[in-house]
Amino acid sequence: MTVKSGTGYTAQYFAPHSEAYESRELCPDELLLFFHHVPYTHKLKSGKTVIQHIYDTHFEGVIQAKELVRTWSSLEPKMDVERFEAVRSRLQEQAAHAKEWRDQINTYFLRKSGIPDEHGCIIY
Question: 110 Cβ partners below 8 Å, 6+ apart?
C-alpha cells in the first residue's frame, strides 16, 4: 500500500508520517499490515513474529473480557439487582464470544500459516 509497492496510501499523509509509513522499519507495528505485505515470520518491534502477535492478542482479549466480568461482579452490592444482572449477563456473553472468536481466528491462522503457536495453546 506504499507509493513504491502498492496503491500509494502512504502519500495521503503529511510528512513525517508519510515517510514513516512508507518505511517497513519505521512504520508502527499496529499499522504495518495495512501498509506493507510482510511474512508471518516477520519480527515486530516487540520481538514477536506477526503470527505470534495474532495468536497472543486473541488470547489476551479473552483474559480482558473475563476480567471485565470479575470487575463488574465486585460492584454487585453497590446497585440494584436488575441493573447488575443485566450488565453481568452481557459481559458474560461478551467473554464467551471472545473465546469463540479467539478459537476461530487462531485456528484459521494456524491452518493458513502452518506455524504453530509457540506456547502450544492452539489445537485443531
Answer: 55, 116, 117, 122, 124
CA angle 31, 36, 37 (to 5 degrees): 125
Coil, helix or strand for 34? helix
pTM, 2 dp: 0.85
Task: Kindly list the averaged pLDDT for each block of 10 residues, start to end, along the chain of length 124.
Answer: 80 93 94 94 97 97 98 97 98 98 97 95 74
CA dist list (Å): 72 to 36, 62, 93: 40, 16, 13
Nearest CA among 116, 41, 98 for reference residue 124: 116
Asked whether the beta carbons of 38 and 32 are under 8 A apart, the reply is: yes
